[in-house]
Each structure stands twice: as structure tokens, then as C-alpha cells.
Amino acid sequence: MTAEHPSTDDLAEAAAGRPLDGLVVLDLTTALAGPYATLLLAGLGATVVKVENPATGGDSSRNNSPYYGPEGLTVARGGDTDMSVSMMGRGRNKRSITLNLKDPRGRDTFLRLARGADVVVENYAAGTADRLGIGYADVCAVNPAVIYTSISGFGAGRPGKAMDSIVQALSGVMFTAGDPGADPVRFGLPVGDLLAPLYAVIGTLAAKTHRDTTGQGQHVDVSMLGALTSLLSTEPFDAFQQVGLPLRTGNEVPRLAPFGIFPAKDGFLALCGPTDTFARGVFRALGRPELIEDEDFATRDGRVRNADRLHAFIEDWSRSLPRAEAVAALAAEGVPAAEVLEPADALRAPAVLEREEVVELGHPEQGPTGLMGPGIPIRFSRSEARLDRPAPHLGEHTAELLARLGGLTEDEIALLRDEGVI
Amino acid sequence: MTAEHPSTDDLAEAAAGRPLDGLVVLDLTTALAGPYATLLLAGLGATVVKVENPATGGDSSRNNSPYYGPEGLTVARGGDTDMSVSMMGRGRNKRSITLNLKDPRGRDTFLRLARGADVVVENYAAGTADRLGIGYADVCAVNPAVIYTSISGFGAGRPGKAMDSIVQALSGVMFTAGDPGADPVRFGLPVGDLLAPLYAVIGTLAAKTHRDTTGQGQHVDVSMLGALTSLLSTEPFDAFQQVGLPLRTGNEVPRLAPFGIFPAKDGFLALCGPTDTFARGVFRALGRPELIEDEDFATRDGRVRNADRLHAFIEDWSRSLPRAEAVAALAAEGVPAAEVLEPADALRAPAVLEREEVVELGHPEQGPTGLMGPGIPIRFSRSEARLDRPAPHLGEHTAELLARLGGLTEDEIALLRDEGVI
Questions:
Q1: Which B positions 256-295 lie with beta carbon below 8 A of chain A?
Q2: For residue range A366-411, what is the model confidence (pLDDT) as tens digits?
Q3: B403 CA to chain A: closest CA distance, Å?
Q4: Phi, psi of A222, rounded to the nearest 5 degrees
Q5: What residue ranges of chain B have pLDDT lower than 70?
Q6: Cβ contacts (< 8 Å) between A23 and chain B: which residues?
Q7: What is the ipTM score, two decimals?
Q8: Which stretches of sequence are listed as region Disordered (chains A, B) (predicted)?
Q9: CATH class of B254-342
């Protein structure tokens, strides 16, 4: 992580050999779902130009507490170079330009940039992009080959306030965790926000393949609710309910017994023993090899019928041991088992760090922060895919990119600046 | 949904105008993570050839209870045409060929097919593909431009039994739901399995773009643990903990109050009021407009400080109302709110059905089943993306595709069949 601002030339060099090298993306997104989509495109090598409103301080994520700066991590913003942790993560490998799109000169400038862009990504509320004159029809009019990707709560043009918890509630996902009959469970990982960007990137790249074949661009439209509900429907919850299997079973799964999360002396462990072989391994690890011959537990049917007793045996055993010791005993018998980790430990596990699936975040001036954030969890044998450049400050690349991508003259840029459009 | 087996010609016709039309994918995957990746590729228009072992009955998902057949939904398999609900969902728009890859003639036949393939996808245990002679090096030797995508638990070549609960445990995700200090929460939606395929499709399509530019194929390597842990690290849980904010807050979020899941007379509702405007809407919906001027609740700082009292006011109000009525009252005041739906209702909501994000599953002979499964949650303005063909029975397309894609003669195919290789 460099402590200097990288120039665009440096970026071009670093991007050589990335899979999406040369792809130009105009990024109109804010908050989480949209910026995560363009973060992936940036890490895969696209030139992502983040368009931010100078009148509002740019992407709302720039104002998410906590911040990082010369004083380290702080709840309130201190000096000018303080950057929100959210932006340090989501802004990496992007360039930032300021442009007030509510001003007709801002819109015209955007459309000049859009003439040379491959992709536009937006996550405005329904109707906003069209009202601003930067919707798919507007961009298509100046660049028919553009791929224009919209991420919304409920589908392009469908109104509704799509906060993560709202999407989770409507998707059914809150009733997949917890004990039968218990309250629904709000999930801390914002799956309502974070699945749509993955499908949006898939859609964008599929449309790129289509364009490479046909020359045609198109509109790609992904909804947060559809993404999460669709993924949920991959599990046959529906069929389970119809044949009388419970939808929720809490931390244990009786129909796969022995199977579940069990308490240890110093935490919890996960154990999965749905086959005869695994179950026998569990009995040996527990020091109860006689259960292998016990008719109540010898077969899968028996174990399912006697799941509560079986899980109680495991709990009696695991409670008395440190979790690492219990996991080691199960692993020695070939049983799939793992410690249940807290996020802080999970993000620092050697496997994910070595593979750069999780990486340390850097601040543009302060360098390494000790805070962890997402890498690109895809490894390519012949390409690089990496988030290795710190997030830009607001508007850091405005003049350079308006000239290079939009063809604006120095005088034009100076005028826009004087008039507060950039 | 047709009640006849579609011929490959029908499939080719239906696939016209799909974004990945013409892309040939050899699918070596089993269970859930791998098959979901190739399901998305199939829905996007790729020709996906599922390679299944005739000696074991093919993909293990074919033996997941419950089944669907002439008797409807059943726990045990009945007749020959019964198909597991898992396969009815995951097998759509794929072709199935049988090939015993442990037999050298099976391997040779596979490599003949691989010469003409664009993509191979596999999710074998570490070392298996190489041992069978169908690893990346083997396929690359006959087809250097191939994109070879591996989905594994912990990364290509890293051993370990990666069941969904094990991956969830190691990712930290189980400590993002539930109350502070409570047990970890196992999530029913298998996020340990289902994120890796999304990144695998992104990686495959990014490698396709790279190949279209450079002519080079490559190995794409995605791990289940890395995919989930990376996605988890998009939220600054790490920074929150360091500034003293709790990682887990259960169903309410005090730092955003009023915000959370609240009980109603007949279920639950989600409510998100983190801004002044939304909070005022909540007070009006509750019939407590005086709180707008109350210094304990007028500002965000006040509401956060008094979050427990504020959330108790909401609960007192919401408990007495049907959830639909409470949501309507909040919506009338512009507050983001929603009923918390059960999966069965969520999968049948008009919005996701109209957009084909969730669709009805069909059985190859029985037709529509009344069971819901995933669509492709991406809409394209100029292409089709749709899962509209029922899953094949085991080996249904063997002879046809060995001839067409592998160039095998009728005699060669007959010999392989006689000797049990196909």
C-alpha cells in the first residue's frame, strides 16, 4: 500500500493482465449494493470512474462513522484527510470525479463521458436516472453499445424503500434461522444488500459476451429482493414443508443427526455427521464406540429417530472440552468439524489471507490500517485480480478524467469548476 | 413446461438470443455449490453438458428426498421417472451424459469432449480431478484455450470437508445474528454453499472476456470459505468492535433507532427509521406526534440514547395490530416497513413471480409441480435468460452429445455402452 496518491498511469500499469483490462465503467452508485458491484469490476481490472455529487459531499458512504485518519480510528470525522472505513473498503481501485448531475451542464458532461464508456452502473431510486436525463434511453441515444446496469430494491422502475432489513423481511430468509416457533432472525451480514451486486456483475459480464458477439448493448436490471428470494428458493424449503419436515430446526438438524452447533468449554463447534461413516467417527471421538452397534444409533433412521438423545450425548462431551480439543478429536476420526469463529478471528485466518480473499485496508495517506476488508475471492492462473489501490478522496481525478475520457479542454474544465458543476 | 423430452434442436432454438449462446460448458459438478454455478450458466444460454457417473447413479442430488413423480411429492422414491426436487431445480436447461471417469476409456472420451469445450466446471475434493487425469493441466494439454473453473471448500488443492455448516462456522457469519452474548446462529439459507458459485460464474465470465482479448484460457479457483468470509468483510464489523460498538444487536439496531423487527398480532414486521424524517413518520404512525418535539427523541443522538424506550413504544403499538395494518400505517407516513414473510409466501409474491426471479418447477413427464425454485434473477432488455426446460433424466443425452460434441461413431458409442463406461 503506497502512501502517495497513485497516478492514473500507475493504475493502468498495475491493471495490465487483469481480466477486465480496458473496460471503462461509469459508476453512478452510492451506499452499499451498487458500490460493491463496481468494486468487483475494479478489482477485476476495469477502469471504474465514480461520479459523485460535489454539492452533497459525494457518496453517502463517505459520511459513515467510523473514520480513519492521522489519529487512527475515530467515531467523529477529524481532519480533511479522514476517510470513512466504508469508503476505504468500497472505494478501492476506483477513480473519483465530481459532477452535479442536477445541473444541465453536469448532465451534458456525463453524456460526453458516456460516449466512450463500456458500462454504466446505477442504483438510484425508481425514476431518478430518467428524470436526471441519464437513464438507459438517454445513454443509449449517445452510445447504443453501452451496457447499462441497474440495481434496485424491487426491479427497475418499481418504487419502494429497499433497506437491507426490509428486503430480508420480504424474502423469507428471516424464517430460515432460529428454533421452530421462535421469532424471525435478522441477519447481521446484509444479504439483502449484497446478493444483488453479485448477480449485477454476472449480468454485466454476460451482456459483455453478448455484445462481443452481436455488437449490441443492453439494459441489465437486477433487484435486491429478487436476488435474495431467488437464492433462497434453491433450497427445497417448499417441498420439505409439504412432506411435513420442519422448515427451521435451530442450531441442530435432526434429519441429518448427528449434526449441529454444540457448546464447548470456551465457545462453540460445528459438527456434521450425516453418514454412517461420519456417525461412527463421532461415536469413537466421544469415547462411546458401543453406540456403533446400538440399534438405536447404528442406522441413519435410528439416529434421526433418536436425534435428541444423540445430540445430548455430544453436548455432554463437548461442554467439558476446549473447542479446539473437541474439533481435533473429531477430525482425528475423519468427522467434518470446526470451531465457530468470531468475525475478527475469521477475517484473520491464514487460509483467507494467503488467498487474498480478505485483505488489510489502506488509507490513501496513512497506509496500512490494521482493519480488514474484502479482496476479490477469485484466483486466476493467468490474470491478476486484486484490490491494491486505496480509495480516492472526493473528486481526486476530476480534471484528469474529464480531459482524458470526455475530451474536455482545460478551459471547459475551469469553467465547470468556477460554476460549481464539478 | 412441455411434457415431452425436448430434443437438442429444440434447446438450440430456445437458446437463440441468450447472452451466452454458443458457449459449451462441461459440467463435472455434484451436490449444490457446483450445480448452482452451472445452472446460472445454463439459464444465461450456455450449452451445459452434465457428466454423471453411471456406476453411482449420477449426481448425489438425484438421491435427495423428497421426490416428485406420478404420485406427486413423496419421501421415498417410487417409479423410474421419479425425480428429486433438488434435481428438478438444479438440473434445468442442462443436458446429461453418463461417463465413468474412473475408467481410462471414460477419461479419454471426456478429453475428446473437452477439446471442443469453452469451459469446464468441477467441485471435486482436493486432488481428485488430477488423480482422474481430468485436472486443469490435463484439459489444458488438449485445449489450451479452456477456462477451467474449480469450486472447493478452502481453495484448489487445499483439503478439508467443506459442508455448509463448517464453512459458516469458520467464516464468522454465525456471530452476526442473534442477541449479544447469545449462542451463534446457524443460518438455514446455505450461504456457505451458495456464494462460491456466484463468484465462480463471475470468474468464468471475466476469464471469457480475457480470452476474447488475448486468446488465453486459464484456471479459475474459488473457495466457499473465501467467498463467504470476503463478503462478510464488506461490513466494517472490525472497525465497529474497535470503537466499542457491539457486533451483534439481535433483531433491533439501537445505533439506528427506531430500527428492527417488531411483533404484531399475527406475525412480525420490519421497520427502518434511522433518519429524522423517518423517525417523525414513525411517531405519527404510532399516534404519538408529541415525540417529535420531545428532547429525548427529537434528534438521532437522543433516539440512540433512548433506543430501548423508543423500541418499547413501538412494540406496545405493533402488538395490538395485524401486521398488514401496522405496515400500512407506517407506509402511509413514508416509513420503510414490511411484513416479515415465511418462505412459502415470499416465493409466491407477485413481484418476484412477474420478474421470474422465482419460477414454478416442472417435472420432465409430469409437467408443473406447484413447487417453486430459482429463476435467473437478472433481466436483460435485448436477451433472454430463463430456466425453462426440465432437468434431464440420468444420461438422457449421452449418445447424441458424444456424437455431436465428441465426434464418436455409433460403433464407438455402442462399445462404450456394452462395457459399462457410459
A1: 259-261, 263, 268-270, 272
A2: 999 999 999 999 999 999 999 999 999 999 999 999 999 999 999 9
A3: 27
A4: -125, 135
A5: 1-16
A6: 209
A7: 0.96
A8: 53-73
A9: alpha beta
